[in-house]
Automatic annotation (TrEMBL):
<feature type="transmembrane region" description="Helical">
    <location>
        <begin position="20"/>
        <end position="46"/>
    </location>
</feature>
<comment type="function">
    <text>Key component of the proton channel; it plays a direct role in the translocation of protons across the membrane.</text>
</comment>
<keyword id="KW-0813">Transport</keyword>
<feature type="transmembrane region" description="Helical">
    <location>
        <begin position="170"/>
        <end position="193"/>
    </location>
</feature>
<feature type="transmembrane region" description="Helical">
    <location>
        <begin position="112"/>
        <end position="131"/>
    </location>
</feature>
<keyword id="KW-1133">Transmembrane helix</keyword>
<dbReference type="GO" id="GO:0045259">
    <property type="term" value="C:proton-transporting ATP synthase complex"/>
</dbReference>
<dbReference type="InterPro" id="IPR000568">
    <property type="entry name" value="ATP_synth_F0_asu"/>
</dbReference>
<keyword id="KW-0812">Transmembrane</keyword>
<feature type="transmembrane region" description="Helical">
    <location>
        <begin position="85"/>
        <end position="106"/>
    </location>
</feature>
<keyword id="KW-0472">Membrane</keyword>
<keyword id="KW-0406">Ion transport</keyword>
<keyword id="KW-0375">Hydrogen ion transport</keyword>
<keyword id="KW-0138">CF(0)</keyword>
<comment type="similarity">
    <text>Belongs to the ATPase A chain family.</text>
</comment>
<keyword id="KW-1003">Cell membrane</keyword>
<protein>
    <recommendedName>
        <fullName>ATP synthase subunit a</fullName>
    </recommendedName>
</protein>
Amino acid sequence: MYVFEQFKILEIIPINVFGYVISFTNSTLFMAITALSLGLLSFIGLKKVRFVPGFFQSINEIIFNFVKGICKEHLGKEYKNYQPLIMSLFLFIVFGNLLGLFPMSFTITSHLSVTMALSLIVFCMVVFVGIRKHGFKFFKLFIPNGVPLVMSPLIFLIEFAIFLVKPLILSLRLCVNMVAGHIMLKVFLGFAVKMKLFSFIPVFACSILLIFEFFVAIFQAYIFTVLACISLKDALYLH
């Protein structure tokens, strides 16, 4: 169907190494654009730090303080150790989501492979932090306080299975929300074009829908960030 064409991965530069296809695709291109955009924003904003910040410096400071607030709220006194990772994930998702709103662009977070990779970064960090900080006591996380001893093995297996599935749930949440929003926008715009509805009402409705998608793109990045912080909090404090 035409609504799914916007999510199709297209090969730009075919690359085959020993039978493995690692071609440069539109997904790769827009991931690179996202990363370069982040680097450019940081470079311009922090090139000359002034007491009275300019436009780009203000944007950097707003984003920094916003993510700092999330990390501080959930991670407590150790937030500084993990803020760079959390901020990188937040910015990558935000820019990837927003970039997909432009015509002829590609939404990198509409593919499970991308969102799963981001979720696995969080998962690996959680496991690493938990084991480094608590050793084998980390596995107490899977046995809630007050559980009867006879029920402990069963509860442990259930909690551990849920823990292993969390990256998939986190990645699906982001992926599905971005796909659903873009499909809704595509269907509405396609309907307006086919019916030749270029009057004020369809244009106004499309504009409202686009603004809504703009905020959804930011909100989904926020949700991912908060859930990542909650997972790290569990590893740090065994809550």
